[in-house]
Design brief:
two-stranded antiparallel ribbon; 4 strands; globular; alpha+beta; 7 helices; two-stranded antiparallel sheet
Length: 165
C-alpha cells in the first residue's frame, strides 16, 4: 500500500508564499507584450520593427525610407519608426494597413515554411499589402508566383509566427 504524501501544515511559511508570488509575477510578465514581439521582425541592433524603416513610406513614396528617432511609436509592444510626423499619424489611423505581411519577415521564406530576415529594399505591394523579402533576387522569385506564394505563406504563417524570437 502506498504511503500518503506528506503536506506541510504551515501554508503560511514565508518561503512558500514568496515562491508562489514570484511564480505568479513571472506568469503575468510572460503574458504581456513586454516580452513578445507579436511576430514582428525586430532589428536586434536598434530594437526597431522592420529594421527601422517607415512602413507608410512604401505606400506613399513608393520606396524604402529610413525612419527617424524623432518619429517613433510603440504599437502592441513593438517600436516603429517613421520618416515624418505625417506618416506616424497615418500609421496610427490604420496600423493594419501598413504593417507588412508575415510580420516583416521574408514573404518568400514564409511561403516555403521558413523564417528569414529581410532587406528593406526588397519589397513589393500587392492588393494594398506590403511584402518584404530577404534580397532583391528573392523578391524576383516571390514575384514570379506571387499569388500561390501568398496562399502558401498565409497557410504557414500562423504556425511560424509562434516560432519567431
Amino acid at each position: 500500500m502506498a504511503k500518503p504524501i506528506a503536506v506541510s501544515k504551515n501554508l503560511n511559511h514565508p518561503t512558500l508564499l514568496l515562491n508562489c508570488f514570484i511564480f505568479l509575477i513571472l506568469m503575468w510578465m510572460m503574458s504581456t507584450p513586454l516580452f513578445a514581439n507579436n511576430g514582428i521582425n525586430i532589428n536586434s541592433s536598434n530594437g526597431l520593427a522592420i529594421h527601422g524603416y517607415d512602413p507608410v513610406a512604401y505606400f506613399t513614396e513608393n520606396k524604402a525610407v529610413e525612419g527617424k528617432q524623432d518619429f517613433t511609436i510603440d504599437f502592441e509592444g513593438n517600436k516603429w519608426a517613421f520618416s515624418s510626423e505625417k506618416n506616424k499619424q497615418e500609421f496610427l489611423t490604420n496600423p493594419v494597413a501598413y504593417i507588412p505581411q508575415f510580420g516583416g519577415y521574408c514573404a518568400y521564406a514564409v511561403s516555403k515554411n521558413a523564417i528569414a530576415n529581410t532587406d528593406p529594399f526588397a519589397w513589393s505591394i500587392h492588393n494594398k499589402k506590403l511584402f518584404l523579402n530577404y534580397s532583391i533576387g528573392t523578391r524576383e522569385l516571390w514575384l514570379k508566383n506571387k499569388v500561390p506564394n501568398i496562399a502558401a505563406a498565409d497557410d504557414y504563417w500562423p504556425t511560424l509566427m509562434k516560432q519567431v524570437p
